[in-house]
């Protein structure tokens, strides 16, 4: 881990972005305009693929497409706040010489830039958004404390917040030219820096989980699929407040998120790197695998094998 951290620390200096200097916010083609078809949800999106969505007026399709991106970024801002608080907590437990003590600060700085960037994009859309609500919100205040008492558990929350959205953003970036340039720029900066964050979290878990006692390992094996399943849902499905605002019928949400193969494939793809990690560090077993299937976060082929 020591060498990997030195590499990460150097990379944090080489490729870094500023939320204002590196995004051309005021260039004319960066404004959001409901005449722009690039704001629509693509057919590869489970909701975008429904007949209900396709039969909406063009302006509604675009407004909802943009609104969904803003809703995701708003939840992303909350996740990043939880992550940053936890990293600061963790940093204080580490030796001054430990390169991880430096790395967590690079990561906090980057998350602050992301949060600035997300906030600016949401404000420019002019659309109202909500972050985490209810129990999720309450829970989000306790998670950072774990970084001190049970850091391995904390880092699985980190992966739950970062892995599914990272995958969704990479998928969107592959549709070059079909994504609004401002959204594309913000996503590109984000995935570049997230790659380092994911590698730090994974490296930390690979090193530390095998040293844990049996009880904590069993606890993690049981909790990880639940965390990952819940957090993927929060990030990849249209939240209730947005569904109400656009009067999306519940049958349409079921069709998009409970019945179709598109959403399952996306959930599994977003969880794939975490699944590989838990297999490598021995946090799987027949009982907990059922939880992975219940949350539909195992790869479709593994899913099919399990059913056979
Ligand atoms: Fe971020
Ligand atoms: Fe991150």
Describe the structure.
By secondary structure, the protein is mainly α. It has a single domain (2-307), classed as Orthogonal Bundle (Ribonucleotide Reductase, subunit A), CATH 1.10.620.20. It is built from 13 helices and no strands. It has helices spanning 2-14, 51-54, 58-93, 99-125, 134-149, 151-174, 181-208, 214-236, 240-245, 250-259, 261-280, 286-294, 300-307. Helix 4 packs antiparallel against helix 7 and helix 8 (214-236) packs parallel to helix 12 (286-294). The longest helix has 36 residues, at 58-93. The N and C termini lie far apart (40 Å). 38% of the residues are buried. The structure holds fe (ii) ion (2 copies). The site of one fe (ii) ion has 5 residues, from helix 4 and helix 7.
Count of helix runs: 13
Structural class: mainly alpha
CATH superfamily: Ribonucleotide Reductase, subunit A
The bound ligands are: fe (ii) ion
Order of helices and strands: HHHHHHHHHHHHH
| CATH-defined fold name | Ribonucleotide Reductase, subunit A
Share of helical residues: over 70%
User: How much strand content do the residues show?
Assistant: under 5%
Classified by CATH, the class is Mainly Alpha
Largest sheet geometry:
none
Shape: globular
Rg from alpha-carbon coordinates: 20 Å
N→C terminal distance: 40 Å
Q: Which CATH architecture is right?
A: Orthogonal Bundle
**Total number of strands:** 0
Low-confidence stretches: 302-308
Topology, pairings included?
Layout: H1 2-14, H2 51-54, H3 58-93, H4 99-125, H5 134-149, H6 151-174, H7 181-208, H8 214-236, H9 240-245, H10 250-259, H11 261-280, H12 286-294, H13 300-307
The structure holds fe (ii) ion (2 copies).
């Amino acid at each position: 881990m020591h060498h990997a951290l030195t590499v990460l620390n150097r990379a944090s200096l080489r490729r870094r972005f500023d939320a204002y200097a590196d995004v051309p916010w005021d260039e004319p083609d960066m404004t959001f305009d409901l005449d722009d078809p690039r704001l629509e949800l693509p057919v590869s999106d489970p909701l975008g693929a429904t007949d209900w969505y396709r039969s909406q007026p063009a302006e509604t399709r675009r407004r909802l497409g943009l609104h969904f991106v803003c809703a995701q970024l708003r939840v992303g801002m909350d996740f990043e706040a939880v992550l940053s608080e936890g990293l600061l907590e963790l940093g204080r437990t580490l030796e001054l010489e430990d390169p991880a003590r430096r790395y967590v600060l690079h990561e906090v700085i980057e998350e602050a830039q992301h949060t600035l960037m997300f906030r600016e994009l949401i404000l420019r859309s002019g659309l109202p958004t909500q972050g985490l609500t209810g129990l999720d919100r309450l829970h989000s205040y306790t998670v950072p404390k774990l970084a001190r008492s049970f850091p391995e558990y904390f880092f699985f929350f980190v992966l739950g917040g970062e892995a599914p959205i990272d995958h969704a953003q990479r998928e969107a970036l592959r549709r070059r030219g079909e994504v609004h340039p401002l959204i594309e720029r913000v996503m590109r900066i984000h995935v570049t820096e997230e790659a380092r964050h994911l590698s730090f979290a994974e490296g930390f878990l690979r090193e530390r989980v095998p040293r844990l006692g049996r009880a904590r390992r069993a606890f993690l094996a049981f909790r990880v699929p639940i965390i990952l399943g819940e957090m993927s849902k929060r990030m990849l499905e249209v939240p209730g407040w947005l569904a109400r605002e656009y009067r999306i019928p519940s049958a349409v949400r079921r069709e998009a998120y409970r019945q179709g193969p598109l959403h399952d494939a996306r959930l599994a793809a977003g969880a794939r790197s975490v699944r590989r990690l838990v297999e490598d560090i021995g946090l799987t077993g027949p009982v907990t695998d059922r939880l992975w299937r219940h949350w539909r976060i195992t790869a479709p082929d593994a899913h099919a094998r399990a059913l056979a």
